Sequence to fold (325 residues):
Amino acid sequence: MSGRRVLAVAGEDEGRRLDVFVAACLPELSRSRVQHLLLEGHVLIEGAPARASRRVKQGEQVEVFIPAPVQAEGGPLPEDIPIDVLFEDEDILVIDKPAGMAVHPAPGTPVGTLVNALLHQVSGLRGIGGELRPGIVHRLDKDTTGVMVVAKCDSALAALQSQFKDRAVKKSYLALVHGSPEPPAGVLNSPLGRHPRDRKRYTGRGEPTRLGARTARTRYQVLKSFTGAALLEVRPETGRTHQIRVHLSEAGHPLLGDKLYGGRRRDRTSVHAGVREAASTLGHHALHARSLSFCHPSSNEGLTFEAEPPMEWELALAHLQGKDS
Fold:
């Protein structure tokens, strides 16, 4: 969205912070978008840019100028990368993300990301946050496969972010792990923070509260046990970085093929041959986002999207079951 909006301050709004008032009047804008508009001088009272902390007064008129989206200098560029689209309308896009694809550019992965692919392939993509880029609402690790939702406009982004923040979005994953957890169903509940010695990793051990740890809860259930491994259904109740991988690893059951959280140690020759062959067949850690449930940001209709694991999972399961692939 772009253009000029004029907001009248009513009696019940008297004394509210300007940023809170604008966000309440323009729910189609995310909170971060409102903050950027204020910092850039695009929110005016009596013709002058106003600060976010200013208290509004009854009878005042607040002008909000929303610039048209522009391509950020040095920002991601379109790339011709195939993506599997499960659903698309004017507000959202739901995809089945493959392994090996990072969600957005970052140091070490400047190209070849989902954002690059979306910029090339999705027609009618509207500006999010003031830049011509898709609205990434949540993320999957580079080698995690499965269902993701992307916002195509500011209003959808704000609505979906709110659902994730309120933990109203339901997520279900499949995981292949070393060993078989006991009990076969339960909750892993330990706060996660940065590892004290390895900034690429997270941990729930030691003194994570000193490392900015945050509450994390993961429900799991064993669907099938094999010799030396198990297939789990995992339902994270929070959305911390690497949450499932860390919780399972620190419970003694790391994902097959997870090099960061125990894969290299567990996949050595001492492991059962079927497990070793399954991990080798996968070529990446064994975590798949099987389903995602949320309310449509415009219609509020409850939606559920599912995606089956990629072909390499079938081959890996055949190895675990002792079958010829």
